[in-house]
Amino acid sequence: MSDNLGFALEGAWKVLFAGLVLGAGLPLLFALGIRSLAWGAGGEAEVHESGVTGPKAQPIGTVLAFVLFAIVVLGIALGITFVVASGFGKALSFEHIYPTIVPKH
Amino acid sequence: MTQASVVLALVVVTALAFDFTNGFHDTANAMATTIATKALRPKTAVALSGLLNLVGAFLSVQVALTVTNAVVKIQNSNGTPKASLVSDGGSALLLIILAGLAGGIIWNLFTWLLGLPSSSSHALFGGLIGATIAGLGWAGVNWNGDGSKLDGVVGKVLLPAVLSPVIAGVVALVGTWIIHRITAGLAARYTDQGFKWGQIGSASLVSLAHGTNDAQKTMGVITLALIASGDWTDTKNIPFWVKVACALAIALGTYLGGWRIIRTLGKGLVDIAPAQGMAAQSSSAAVILASSHLGFALSTTHVATGSVLGSGLGRPGAQVRWRVAGRMITAWLITLPAAGVVGALMWGIGHLIGGLAGALVVFALLVAAAVAVWLRSRRAPIGSHNVNDDWDVAAGPEHAAAVAAAEAPVAPAPATVTAAS
Predict the structure, then answer these.
(1) What's the angle, vertex CA B349, arms to CA B343 and CA B354, rounded to 5?
(2) Which of A63, B216, B229, B324 has the fewest CB atoms within 10 Å, counting from its CB?
(3) A95 inside 8 A of chain B by CB
(4) pLDDT in tens, A5-14
(5) Contact (CB<8Å) A16/B154
(6) What residue intervals traverse the membrane (chain A) (predicted)?
(7) What is the pLDDT of residues A40-85, one digit of tens each?
(8) Which residues of A touch B209 (CB under 8 A)?
(9) Quick check: is B361 in a domain?
């Protein structure tokens, strides 16, 4: 029982950490992307005082938004790669920082 | 056809039936929030989830033959069944598997009737544990593993069940709060459109992961039965027809949609806005993938429910219906023992009658229980047409009946089921 508890808590911390990075981090980037998109579009995209024209369009915001979305898409692609790889008996290794597919030990 | 092959056929059919209930019981985990926020239409959502479960099931090339080893000792570590259980053509082992599966199915159907998202893996493991205790005694259960890694009922089932919803809840809470802070002051058409795509993406990931994880369990159980009866010998591969049958069963179940559970998770627990839906679904996807990467066994259901709860706590001003949450948690606590009691009863009945007749009676009881639950569910049907109705506002007598059915502590259900609860 105590052995299992130790292993479980050890695993739980790792899952929590990875969950926060991917499960809250990617939505954070995604939300920033949406914010940038609205900033890029200007006008009525952001809530502003009535009777006044909205803020000016900022093309750089649109570019920034798509960079952020691209990062999110990469994150999702990593997730799919993981599911597929583990189905074929492989695992993802983060040994070299960037992920590589290795045989599961 | 010999007696043994009839029993084997019953086991295979029952295992596929379990896989089917596994599908519709868990549709909610991936799609409840997506349906509740109208990111996808209900029918589209279940079709997408079913398709991804099908794809996911075929992706699981790796053998999951030792799936029962986590909780019971009916297999050797290489996947072959214990010699003592197959001495008489495998009938001892087949009865344990049949009774265990029956316990899992009956509990899954009962919780579905009540609209409660309980864990299908707990139901399966509970049924198997119960049948094993009845058949082999307490020593037949792998309670704690050997202490070298996270294993046994405690390590693979109980501890993750406590920890995983908390982890998922924290991640979803943080995610929801961050998203709301960042997008405050933006026009709704910008945020809602964006979060719609975020939700569809993360819900798809959850569906795919579900297909790879859960269909494998049934594939492992069927192959174990085939080995026990001497119809299959290869412990490195699963017969192709088993893979196809399991993939189709879980995909069809998912496509059917467990609307009662989708409703509870999407509308009952918290009122979900698109941003929360995305945060909850991303949290589920990340926690499920991270934990299977780290070898931390958990239930998709517990993670999804924890995420939805967390997203309710993270949005300023959102309310969580703690009464619904309390009922869910109660269901989680009793799933394993309740499925175990049904599994043990089924084993007892099958053993008492013995042989082919025993297996047939167990199967007949299972069918009777399923029909009874289904008939009962027709009194207050929930489907794609009313899954998104407001939870608190009674829209008419039909709805009031549905709420009453969903909130009754114990519904008058068939004898086998009431005995177990």
Answers:
(1) 120
(2) A63
(3) no
(4) 877 787 888 8
(5) no
(6) 12-34, 63-85
(7) 887 766 766 666 666 777 888 889 999 999 998 888 888 788 777 8
(8) 83
(9) yes
